[in-house]
Amino acid sequence: MAIEFPTYNGVEVAALPPPGYEVDFDNRKQQKWLEHILIFCLMSPLALMALLQRFYTKIILSKGLQVDDFFMLLGWVTAILTQALMLTSISKRLFCSHSFEMPLTDYESYALYSYVTAPIYMMCNGFTKLSLLLFYLQISPQTWFRRAVWVSITVVSLSSLIIVCFMFFGCSPLHKAFRPKTEGRCVNAGIFYMATAASNIVTDVILFVLPIPMVYSLRMPRIQKFGAMMVFGIGSITIGTSVVRLALLPVVLKSPDPSWDGCPADVWTFVEANLFIICGSMPTLRKFFKHLMPRLMGSSGQSSSYRNPASPGPSNSGNMISRLRHKRKSYAQFASDGEENEMQDFSGGDTTKKQRSVTVTTADQSQVPGDNQSDEGAILQTKSFTLQYN
Length: 390
What we know:
This protein is mainly alpha-helical and 390 residues long. The chain has 2 domains: 7-17 and 25-294, Rhopdopsin 7-helix transmembrane proteins; 304-338 and 346-389, no CATH class. 58% of the residues lie in helices and 9% in strands. The chain contains 14 helices and 7 strands. The strands form 3 sheets. Strands 5-6-7 form a 3-stranded antiparallel β-sheet, with helices on one face. Strands 1-2 form a two-stranded antiparallel sheet. Strands 3-4 form a two-stranded antiparallel ribbon. Strand 1 and strand 2 (11-12) form a beta hairpin. Helix 4 (143-168) runs antiparallel to helix 5. It starts with 6 loop residues before the first strand and ends with a strand. InterPro entries: Rhodopsin_dom_fungi (IPR049326), SAT4-like (IPR052337). One of its GO terms (cellular component) is membrane. It is found in: Membrane. This is Rhodopsin domain-containing protein.
């Protein structure tokens, strides 16, 4: 037996309008539709450029695409799909319109768009965060850090999977979710929207906090350490967007007009979906700009050591290997993707012209394929040259 709905001026509607409201089915009021369009037009190209920059850097300047890049691509696809579905619904005057100004057939269309869009957006959230966590596995061989990353991967995977499944299978029968006249039961959709926003905040905080101890312990110039912290800090912007969405969603929980009251939170969905891609592609920005503007960006990731040829011997070689291992642990987190060893400039205090023979021993990792974590993976190369200075 089908559930009965009220009628207004002979049209079956999902809910009756408030007293005194003049309903116009052909010209429904909409709110914040322009904000959705502007954010999509401004931020989606930025997200695409960030993704292309990431792929260019990985394919041309580094070792090629890896698993984390595949997950970021899936995140971008689901982000675009989420926004495209919502914009299509807005163009049909479904999203951001009053429920009581829709014929019941249109309200069913709105409910169908919501049913499909919400879990796709949650997939976007999960894919992009898994991409960043998989990238974290590549930047440090420290045992505690890798264990923490794997725990975070498990938390993000399970929370995303559970929420997506409940969103898809939260009604019995399934089509009850978008056909309100069908008899059946549904889990409160607002609770899952709240759960999505809350899980976003928790996982965003984890992604921001996780690399801080590792970066803080690095032995590198302060400016480079600050730059590394900024890369991860900018990614924490999504914490703010998740908090805003969470603050806006309680209005929807008990609202008789969800298509209208949920619209402000949907604006932040657009912002957040694009920020997932932009922030997730930031770790490759330094190498990309260093390729475009090498003089401006300068050098980092130094792993060269200098020794005087007057004191060669096995003990010195052992000390050299030890120093190389130590420096590799300090810098490899941000230079293990194929950056060349760079030499540091030195200047003496003597103003007279002098010459001195110097032997440089460098560690070359490029000849040891697949060895990204072993300290013994470095091959020593010795070069001699004459250093002239004033």
